[in-house]
Amino acid sequence: MGLLEALAGGVSGERSVATVTQHLQHLLGSTEGYAAVLGDYGLSAEASLGAPGAEAEDKLPEERLRAELLRNLLKFEPALREAELSICSRDARGRLYFLLSAGLFRSEPRFTWGIRFNVWSRQILVEELAT
Fold first, then answer.
1. What does the DSSP 8-state code read for residue 129?
2. Widest CA span of the chain, in angstroms?
């Protein structure tokens, strides 16, 4: 339900962390312009392939991808408050690990998600991490 509500322009009421996590998986697993109602919903192919973007020519591929992930988070997931996204590591199998920290709605505690991006398959996995 979170995905359809976000595409329709808003979310009615507060949602659970599990619902937000599920929407993050859908959002970050989508490719911009591919079978989407909104043209800029999802990751741009250029950022997910590591190609230079028009406004970010001098940035490393990991930083361009981080910027694209953050753009989607801020634009299409209204539940996130004061979101911070950082690059944690890259492993030998070509997976990038990001850490997302944000509050939800008006709740006091911050939640943390791990985002794993496989540079070979272009697949993303979003998991809530215990804090």
1. E
2. 42
What three-state secondary structure class fits 81? strand
Phi-psi region of 73 (alpha: psi -120 to 50; beta: other; left: phi over 0): alpha
Band of the pLDDT at 29, cuts 50, 70, 90?
confident
Split into its structural domains, the chain has a count of 1
Q: Which two tokens stand for residue 34?
A: 């591919």
The pLDDT value given to residue 84: 95
> pLDDT tens across 78-107, in order?
899 999 999 998 888 878 899 999 998 777
Q: Tell me how far apart the alpha carbons of residues 124 and 131 are, in angstroms, rounded to a whole number.
A: 21
Q: Give the residue numbers spanning the domain of 36.
A: 2-129
Name the H helices within 60-117: 61-76
CATH number at residue 23: 3.10.450.40
- End-to-end distance of the chain based on CA atoms, in angstroms? 26
Place of tokens 């996130």: 80
